[in-house]
Amino acid sequence: MSANKRKYTQSLDLVQGKVEMAHGAGGKAMAQLIEQLFIRAFDNPALNVQSDQAMLALPDTAGLASGKIVMATDSHVISPLFFPGGDIGSLSVHGTVNDVVMSGAKALYLSVGFILEEGFPLADLKRIVDSMAFAAREAGVAIVTGDTKVVEKGNGDGVFINTTGIGVLPEGLELSTDQVRVGDKVLVSGSLGDHGVAIMSLRENLTFETTIESDSQSLDQLVARMIDRIPDIRCMRDPTRGGLAATLNEIAGQADVGIQLQEEAIPVKPQVRAACEFLGLDPLYVANEGKLIVICPKQRADELLALMHDHPQGADAAIIGEVFEDPNHFVQLKTSFGGMRMVDWISGEQLPRIC
Amino acid sequence: MSANKRKYTQSLDLVQGKVEMAHGAGGKAMAQLIEQLFIRAFDNPALNVQSDQAMLALPDTAGLASGKIVMATDSHVISPLFFPGGDIGSLSVHGTVNDVVMSGAKALYLSVGFILEEGFPLADLKRIVDSMAFAAREAGVAIVTGDTKVVEKGNGDGVFINTTGIGVLPEGLELSTDQVRVGDKVLVSGSLGDHGVAIMSLRENLTFETTIESDSQSLDQLVARMIDRIPDIRCMRDPTRGGLAATLNEIAGQADVGIQLQEEAIPVKPQVRAACEFLGLDPLYVANEGKLIVICPKQRADELLALMHDHPQGADAAIIGEVFEDPNHFVQLKTSFGGMRMVDWISGEQLPRIC
Predict the structure, then answer these.
(1) pLDDT (tens digit, 9 = 90+) per residue, A36-79?
(2) Contact A19, A117 (CB under 8 A)
(3) A105 and A225 in contact (C-beta within 8 Å)?
(4) pLDDT at B73
(5) For residues B260 and B95, what is the distance between their CA atoms, to the nearest angstrom?
């Protein structure tokens, strides 16, 4: 590595430079991009070996030696690339870390695959890469291997990022929708709709008194705390694309149950609600990138809620519903006016390129 | 899962249907696509759970319990999507499996991330997915988790595929460019340039007496055999983008050595050589997708070569060069005429979107 480094005496122009086809061509320009941008930002022993694969020691810490690893993948195509509360870089770390930790696992390693459009400013790429590196450090994960491809102008859209994550499961832990039972409580870790509304407001050029920020964040710490104290949690999911509605319909179908929600219990920020009304969106269908849904036995719900409230990532957590017997797997909402309405899957396109 | 399945009574039109924005929107259409296309094709227990992550038991087979796992990622943007000898689907499996097994590991699991362009024919997607499934079965890997995004027409190019792979290392095995020593022999597993020339011929609409086919294949079986019988192999690499030249320059730099090649020993098929001359390409710089470079101690070279010859994937293997002391890390070629020429890195774009 250090020997190899000497080859790239020319420095990458991270201020004015642009992505060129050569940056994906397997030659010196690509090696230079990897050396001077990615490796510098993601710096860790497994990545720095610069092999085509990452060699990963599984930690032999007691409690992590169950022999079960967890892998999750997400491609990110969000538009615009930069938004209040984050960017495609931080989002690509948060999204995959959250997918891993929803299983109860501790996230350890990430891979990253970039698809770059010819002509994309390197300064923007650096900003994205730095943001990924920061998000990875915060979540305690190492980005251990990567790949870069470049497509001609007009055949991509700036940057697409795939992240794939690996984690290890604490011994004996098995969260699954199979564990869900009638009578269980449904909790959410905080207010809904922030991410999707932040992006749509930006696209529509809406301004409100306060800027609506994406909730994009890694939930690793909150999850670790929950798992540690309430190991009989049934299952967790992060309500991303399709929002709460899609996630609960998925759970209801897999668990062979119905779910009834209390509308007034569902936390939605006033400015998010106002923006939703303006944009014609329903916050229950809007993507979140830093929230989780958790289902737990009825008798543990209050304890779990208190525990979540104690952590900044769960400060606005709420018990929002209950699991019922229902062969139709309906998710229903008891409205503030006492009526009931169906919370069905969205049936088509709602918010394109929201993550 | 089975409960959930009942929801999608409408069948996906895999003949006339097209990818719609809804296929990436997190709702029913996306669930339908996953159920009726991906899960049917990739069918395996870890994937079928349909959670956001794959839970993976590490095999406790003796010899695989070293506690080291290997992870590799590759995004594939090849154009055209279908070519003689393969397609983006098979390539995306072969490419990542090969990256994993070059470490000496046994590849076990793959994740897949699709970025689809609105309007892409589902029939083509099915062809690609079936091809991935076949390639995965052949290589003995399971595609255990995935993600699908859709971008608007004009912001992508049909299909981009990220695959990320996980493998486990046999106990005690440690291949690395650090192990390379002066005097070591350099071998290649077969003829060079087939993949790149197949793609370029297709793009340029060239026809030859025989169609040049990509060499795209998973090298897992050949590698397992090599590792098993000659565990003192120094290192292996697959010469993909940038070809033999890029791979050997990378090794020379990392190992702090020089490499000298014998031009006449390097296997290149006559029709590939002819096409290269026609296209103005040098086969040493052209991408391969089913070949490996291996460096081994001088005294094991003949045994390794015989072993490779015994396997169909190594039938045309050859000893092509030797490792020298060289603080400049030059890769040089002794030509058939007795002269020497530098085999430098390609310095810019050569073959865009070759993988």
Answers:
(1) 877 777 676 766 656 556 656 565 543 444 457 889 999 999 99
(2) yes
(3) no
(4) 93
(5) 27
pLDDT tens figures, B61-102:
434 344 578 899 999 999 999 999 999 999 999 999 999 999
Confidence of residue B12 (pLDDT cuts 50, 70, 90): confident
Q: CA-CA-CA-CA torsion for B184, B185, B186, B190, nearest 10 degrees? A: -150
Q: Any residues with CB less than 8 A from the CB of A24 and at least 6 apart, and which? A: A30, A116, A148, A149, A150, A151, B241, B352
Yes or no: domain B52-169 corresponds to CATH 3.40.720.10: no
* C-alpha distance from A206 to closest chain B C-alpha (Å): 22
Domain range list for chain B: 52-169, 177-342
CA A128/CA A87 separation, integer angstroms: 7
Q: Could you tell me the two tokens for A31?
A: 């090696």
Residue A22: list chain B partners with CB under 8 A: 347-349
Give the A window 81-100 contacts with B, CB below 8 Å: 99-100
Among residues A38, A135, A167, A35, the alpha carbon closest in space to that of B166 is found at A167
Which one of A44, A49, A53, A342 makes the best mutation probe of the B interface by having the most chain B beta carbons within 10 Å? A53
Dist. CA B134–CA B88, nearest whole Å: 13
Specify which residues A40 forms β-bridges with: none
CB-CB under 8 Å, B164 with A348: no
Tell me: ipTM over 0.85: yes
Omega of the bond prior to B80 within 30 degrees of 0, cis?
yes
Show the tokens assigned to B37: 């296309």
How far is A162 from A151, CA to CA, in rounded Å?
15
Per-residue pLDDT of B103-139, as tens digits, reads: 998 998 899 999 999 988 988 988 999 899 999 999 9
Q: Which residues of chain A neighbour B167 with C-beta distances below 8 Å?
A: 53
d(CA A327, CA A339): 21
Q: Which CATH class is domain A177-342?
A: alpha beta
